[in-house]
Design goal:
By secondary structure, the protein is an alpha+beta fold. Helices cover 29% and strands 23% of the residues.
């Protein structure tokens, strides 16, 4: 199995949703995500990915997963080519890297990890077999052995996954829409219960019916 490196720089993307995402993964939820993969088109469904935090401490590898969709083009006007390549994957392990990592950057400087370029400028580079084997062994020692998430075994989908940032935004939007709907229903009930004989809204006492 081939493994690839994904890069996270908190300077470029603060990722405030990470603590909640880590809790969901720890609870056994199959959380999917989408990540840029640089220029790599050789990544295949089922391949292994490891996520490395760079630029700010704590630096190191803090997440792993399995690719669920091969690289696809996403329109991006900021790129000269007009698009960026992304892959979808499902986490099988994730910690809140705002506070901790599983394998530190200092550990990655030692043999056999040192054969690999870890501080890559872009995601999507393949991890050399010597480093991959040692990393997977150490990863299992520290995080435990787990079965692949069901999402990693499902047939590849043509529909792109939503990033954890997008998932959080959608959840927030849905919650606000639901709350707004409940408030509107309470307001409607208030006016319908206080109508005068002529059908106009009443001005009776009590609360406004708005939350």
């Amino acid at each position: 199995m081939t493994a690839f490196l994904l890069i996270w720089s908190p300077k470029k993307w603060p990722w405030p949703e990470l603590p909640d995402v880590a809790k969901r993964v720890a609870a056994g939820e199959a959380v999917t995500d989408v990540w840029g993969c640089g220029f790599s088109r050789s990544i295949l469904p089922g391949d292994r990915v490891f996520v490395h935090r760079v630029t700010l401490e704590p630096k190191g590898i803090f997440a792993s997963g399995y690719v669920t969709r091969a690289p696809y083009e996403v329109p991006d006007a900021t790129k000269k080519r007009g698009y960026r390549l992304c892959v979808d994957f499902v986490y099988d392990y994730l910690v809140d890297a705002h506070h901790e990592v599983v394998v530190t950057r200092d550990e990655l400087r030692k043999h056999p990890f040192s054969v690999q370029t870890w501080d890559a400028q872009t995601s999507g580079i393949s991890i050399k077999p010597m480093a991959e084997g040692a990393l997977e062994k150490l990863w299992i020692e520290r995080t435990g052995k787990r079965a692949r998430p069901a999402a990693a075994l499902a047939p590849p989908s043509d529909k792109p996954a939503s990033s954890t940032k997008e998932q959080a935004t959608q959840a927030w939007s849905a919650a606000n829409k639901a709350a707004a709907g409940k408030r509107a229903a309470r307001v409607a009930m208030y006016f319908s219960s206080r109508k005068r004989p002529d059908g106009t809204p009443g001005e009776g006492g009590g609360d406004s019916g708005d939350a």
